[in-house]
Specification:
The structure holds two protein chains of two kinds. By secondary structure, chain A is an alpha/beta fold. Chain A contains 14 helices and 13 strands. Chain B has 26 helices and 18 strands. Chain B has a seven-stranded antiparallel sheet with strand order 5-6-9-12-7-1-16. Chain B has a four-stranded antiparallel sheet with strand order 2-15-17-18. The chains are: A alpha/beta, B alpha+beta.
Chain lengths: 329, 801
């Protein structure tokens, strides 16, 4: 196996025989470049999105209107080239509108299953907090177990099933906040934020055609099969025992912290490690360092910590400051 | 805890030894213990996963080894002349066993068993201790035990803790009252029964020695184990039995009456006073004497084979006295107050002797019968100083202490006592005419040639209050009998403004006296009369003159020779001090006797052996009616210890320690101020010395060095920040050109420590050297100062975006 760097720092990184498929690696590079060209000045957010994708997690984009949440989700879905499902969540949306339903065919005198948009490789649930908790709950089983049970019949989803949900934190009128059980099934929550001045200038300077949607079925980045390979490679990234212990210390600290009402669950712990593995992989390393744990701590923790008092960012910063990092021994 | 118990045992074993010796021995044995424990633990770990029979063999071997090592140690120590009491050997062995149990910590139960062993050791050692301070170590052990138990059982305790407590005054009152009741009962039961060897005497606690088992290292008894046994066999033998020595024990035995082929025992011509024991105190020995005199006792033909007791050896000692009391004490025998330039004489000796009382006793002595302590004789003049009580504190005295002296090879009727001894007691001696105070103030047994050997004299000695002495202004004035005309001439000369010239002063042997007087005047002319003057004279003699018993002495003018050469024996120091104080108008005298040296503490008995070489001379000054203060002008001898209050001691210590404190503070400040410089230098040395280490260890050393440098310049790396984050940030601010090197170094370090990389890439060491040279303490500090807040700024702020 040979190593090819994924980011700019990879030139100085040690040799790590990670990526066996140069094609998959190059496609990942193309995907990143494409997303960077779509969402200007947000390279860190895009890296986190890719980490979430490679870690087989689900993504919650939480930001103000017009910051590019849907654009990013749509571009990612388009780039993957698989089946894409989109649900515009509204209060009258029913669970069967997402998962599908059995319909009695009078000709054949049998029930026929009509799959919903959830049977796709990438599902975009736009404005997820606009729909009712009953409908939101339709995603619980799919996100956790990658299957849907309809009329007592389980219907498996693809193993690369990836949910991108967006929500608007400002307009809370008529919104249904996601329950903790639902939030815990997301790997991370990302805030995209406004682009900086240079990015905005470049955005204005671009011709309008650059923002036109690509034709359906044209994968500008990664296809499903290379994605599957990359996900397997990410899962094989080494996590040293000292780093694992550090991770457990952090998770235990969230459970004992006085300002945190609900700490990280075991599922959250597993997701955190996978995201850190993906982060290390994206930076050309075959091992996870304590810095990787810290780098992905904010998006991973902010989606699942229930803060009793204070600012979540401050609480997480305090946690990272208080827990000693493993030393070099 | 086992080690702590071991140290306590050692402390008890050497109750009279200097603390430093105990500590050194304790540390040595503790080191041996740790080493043994480590080896045992290794063996234990090696066989931990072995089969059952292997483990059994290991246990048998461990127990056998422990027993053999214990016996060997005891035998070797006894052969080497440093025998240890058997119970001490057993206690030490138990302590070692406790340590071994700690070493075998892979077995959970061994922890508790070790604590139990330690607890037994501590309680046993405290119970048999003669040292009251042992209770503090026991309390410390209890505190550690409590901490250990709480730490080990905290979860269980927490589970059983009540969630909330509802206060009830009745319950509180009941609990408090019960506590006081239990405390009172315990106090009543244990009052006066503190840690003491009387428990051993009671016979319920095993100990060595005794009547059947001859252990020369026995701990009990006044002398040693042999002495205890021998003393029980015959009254006149070497033994510690205090009253037997005054028995007429040389009467012919019944055997001698029957057998006329052997000459009769020589009749003792001399007659000495003796006291008979009371009827209610007969011993088997005395009954034997009585029967032999009456001739009615049977003569037994069945006699046991004569054999000398095993290990019973004659011991020859050069000791003159055994002293049980504080070290550094001067025991006076004679006092002299008149010096003619060459010889000292006692003017007081020529005085008319005091009229004896009706019982033939000294009127200066007051007889008192003390409950459980027999008959004591007190000096009435010193009692008057204390309002008639031997214990009260008045005048210059503050409290009393009990001492004892045992006569070994001392041939004199005088009893060596400290200067302020107020009362003495010899067991069963209750006749008033047995003691007297001589004209020079010494204790004496009149009408005897010597005090019998092995007599034990107990005494009560007043402690002098040093604080009161410093402000004492009632030193009697005197006309300086010794100095006389010479002193007057010296004083006159000094008044003229010059030191006495030998040519001007009196010739011959009086010249030294005049010189002493002038020196005393010169040393004390700016001091007020009283203790400051006395202290100044003594201090100058101790500091400016050298103690040398082999120094040549001027036969005609020994004092002058001493003052001119600055060297001499202690008799010359004492002479000079006495003459000087007399010249200043103080009533002073020279005392001769023995000095209890700190180094002659008997290991077994705990007493101080005073030999012929410990004869000593010193000075005494009279402070009040009958109250004389010992002074030590000779350097090398411990000065008399006066009672000092804590406040006084603290003040004295503060003044004497000011130069040290200032110097030390300056040194610490200098070290602190230059810490980055020498710290940087040390770091470089460490980095240079680490070159033989492997790459992984060197990398750890370098990161540690960087952390130390950061601490030195008060920019420590926050514990939640990785070295990569911290030092890359700093390096980026110092020199961006070196940032790639730092990045690469930490990338490699991360790969080695947290990844699968076994060896660093070629050239990694060069990068490490560059990082070590670039990230110096000075640069880190400069970066920290220039970019204030780098330490406070969160390195995670960028992540939250």
């Amino acid at each position: 196996m040979t190593i090819t760097s994924i980011d700019s720092r990879a030139d100085s990184a040690p040799d790590a025989n990670i990526v066996s498929d140069v094609g998959a690696k190059q496609r990942l590079e193309h995907l990143r470049a494409h997303l960077n060209s779509v969402l200007l000045g947000k390279s860190r957010q895009i890296e986190l999105v890719l980490a979430c994708l490679l870690a087989r997690g689900h993504l919650l984009l939480d930001d103000l209107p017009g910051t590019g949440k849907t654009t990013l989700a749509k571009s990612l879905a388009d780039s993957l080239g698989g089946r894409f499902g989109r649900v515009q969540c509204t209060p009258d949306l029913l669970p069967t509108d997402i998962s599908g339903f059995n319909l009695f065919n009078q000709k054949t005198r049998e029930f026929e299953f009509h799959p919903g948009p959830i049977f796709s490789d990438v599902l975009l649930a736009d404005e997820i907090n606009r729909t009712t908790p009953r409908t939101q709950s339709a995603l619980l089983e799919a996100m956790a177990e990658r299957q849907v049970t309809i009329d007592a019949v389980p219907h498996p989803l693809v193993d690369t099933f990836f949910v991108i949900a967006t929500q608007n934190p400002i307009d809370s009128h008529g919104a249904y906040p996601l329950p903790e059980a639902q939030l815990d099934r997301f790997a991370m929550r990302l805030e995209i934020g406004y682009p900086d001045r240079e990015a905005q200038f470049e955005m204005l300077s671009r011709p309008a055609s650059d923002f036109a949607p690509k034709p359906d079925g044209v994968a500008v980045g990664l296809s499903i099969e290379p994605l599957r390979k990359l996900q397997r490679l990410v899962a094989s990234v080494t996590v040293h025992d000292a780093v694992r212990r550090y991770l457990i210390e952090l998770v235990e600290a969230t459970r004992d912290h006085e300002a945190i009402e609900l700490g990280v669950s075991p599922r959250g712990l597993l997701i955190w490690q996978r995201i850190a593995q993906a982060w290390a992989f994206l930076h050309g390393r075959d091992f996870v360092s304590p810095g990787d744990i810290q780098e992905v701590a904010f998006p991973v923790l902010s989606v699942r910590l229930v803060i009793r008092s204070g600012n979540a960012s401050d609480v997480i910063t305090g946690l990272l400051k208080d827990i000693p990092v493993p030393g070099y021994r | 805890m086992a080690c702590l118990a071991l140290v306590v045992v050692l402390r008890l074993r050497g109750s009279g030894e200097p603390v430093s010796v105990v500590i050194v021995e304790g540390v040595a044995i503790a080191a041996w213990l740790v080493l043994t424990a480590w080896v045992s633990r290794s063996a234990w770990m090696a066989l931990r996963f072995g089969r059952l029979w292997q483990r059994r063999i290991l246990v048998v071997m461990a127990i056998s080894g422990l027993a053999i090592s214990t016996l060997s140690r005891w035998i070797v120590a006894a052969m080497g002349g440093r025998g240890t009491a058997w119970e001490m050997v057993m206690l030490t062995t138990l302590a070692v066993a406790a340590g071994l149990l700690v070493a075998a910590s892979t077995v959970e139960k061994s922890h508790s068993l070790s604590v139990v062993c330690g607890g037994f050791l501590m309680l046993f050692a405290t119970a048999i201790s003669d040292n009251g301070d042992a209770i503090y170590l026991a309390l410390a052990w209890v505190a550690i035990c409590l901490w250990w138990m709480v730490a080990n059982h905290w979860e269980r305790l927490e589970l059983h803790m009540p969630g909330a407590i509802r206060r009830q005054s009745g319950l509180r009152f009941g609990a408090t009252a019960s506590g006081f009741l239990i405390f009172g009962l315990a106090l009543t039961v244990t009052w006066g029964r503190g840690p003491s060897t009387r428990l051993i005497g009671g016979g319920w606690m095993p100990t060595s020695g005794g009547q059947r088992w001859n252990d020369p290292a026995a701990r009990s008894g006044i002398g040693d184990g042999d002495a205890v046994i021998a003393a029980k066999q015959h009254a006149a033998s070497f033994g510690p039995v205090e009253s037997d020595l005054f028995l007429q024990s040389d009467l012919p035995s019944l055997f001698d009456m029957f057998d006329d082929t052997i000459g009769e025992p020589a009749i003792r011509r001399r007659s000495e006073k003796a006291v008979g024991l009371q009827n209610q105190m007969p011993t088997d020995q005395q009954q034997h004497f009585a029967q032999s005199q009456q001739g009615g006792a049977a003569f037994s033909a069945a006699r046991e084979r004569s054999e000398s007791p095993a290990n019973l050896r004659d011991r020859k000692t050069t000791a003159v006295l055994h002293w049980v009391g504080p070290v550094g004490v001067r025991l006076a025998i004679e006092r002299f107050d008149n010096f003619d330039g060459v010889d000292w004489t006692a003017v007081a000796a020529g005085k008319t002797p005091r009229v004896k009382t009706r019982g033939g006793g000294d009127p200066l002595l007051q007889r008192r019968e003390m409950q459980d302590a027999g008959v004591w004789y007190f000096r009435s003049d010193l009692l008057r100083q204390n309002n008639g009580s031997p214990q009260s504190s008045a005048g210059l005295f503050r409290g009393s202490r009990g001492d004892a002296v045992k006569f070994i090879n001392f041939r004199s009727p005088r009893i060596p006592t400290p200067t302020t001894t107020v009362g003495i007691h010899i067991a069963d001696v209750d006749r008033d005419d047995f003691f007297e105070i001589t004209a020079d103030g010494s204790w004496r047994m009149p009408d005897r040639e010597t005090v019998p050997s092995l007599t034990v004299v107990r005494m009560v000695t007043h402690e002098i209050d040093g604080d009161r002495l410093r402000n004492w202004n009632r030193f009697p004035m005197t006309s300086s009998p010794s100095v006389g005309d010479a002193g007057a001439a010296a004083n006159a000369s000094l008044q003229k403004g010059h030191i006495v010239d030998p040519a001007d002063g009196p010739p011959g042997h009086r010249l030294g006296m005049s010189l002493a007087a002038s020196l005393a005047k010169q040393w004390t002319h700016d001091l007020s009369r009283g203790w400051p003057q006395i202290e100044a004279v003594i201090d100058r003699l101790r500091n400016d003159f050298a103690f040398d018993r082999s120094a040549d002495s001027d036969a005609e003018d020994p004092l002058g020779g001493f003052l001119r050469t600055g060297r001499g024996g202690d008799h010359l120091f004492a002479t000079a001090a006495t003459v000087m104080l007399q010249s200043l108008g103080y009533e002073a005298r020279l005392a001769t006797g023995f000095y209890a040296p700190p180094g002659n503490i008997a290991r077994l008995g705990g007493h101080i052996e005073i030999g012929p070489e410990d004869v000593h001379a010193w000075a005494e000054v009279r402070a009040d009616e009958g109250v004389w203060i010992p002074l030590e002008p000779t350097p090398g001898y411990l000065p008399p210890r006066f009672y000092r209050s804590w406040w006084s001691l603290a003040t004295l210590l503060a003044w004497s320690a000011i130069p040290w404190i200032l110097g030390l503070s300056a040194g610490i400040i200098l070290l602190w101020w230059s810490r980055s410089a020498w710290g940087e230098w040390l770091c470089r040395v460490v980095w240079w010395c680490s070159s033989p280490l492997g790459s992984r260890r060197r990398m750890a050393v370098l990161v540690r060095i960087l952390d130390i440098r950061s601490v030195l310049v008060r920019a420590p790396r926050p514990m939640g920040t990785t070295p990569r984050q911290w030092y890359c940030e700093i390096m980026g601010r110092i020199d961006e050109s070196l940032t790639p090197s730092v990045h690469h170094f930490f990338d490699t370090a991360d790969a080695i420590v947290f990844g699968n990389q076994a060896t660093p890439p070629v050239g990694w060491m060069d990068e490490a050297n560059r990082v070590a040279a670039a990230l110096t303490a000075g640069r880190i500090g400069k970066c920290h100062r220039e970019f204030v807040g780098i330490a406070e700024r969160s390195p995670f702020s960028s992540y939250s975006r």
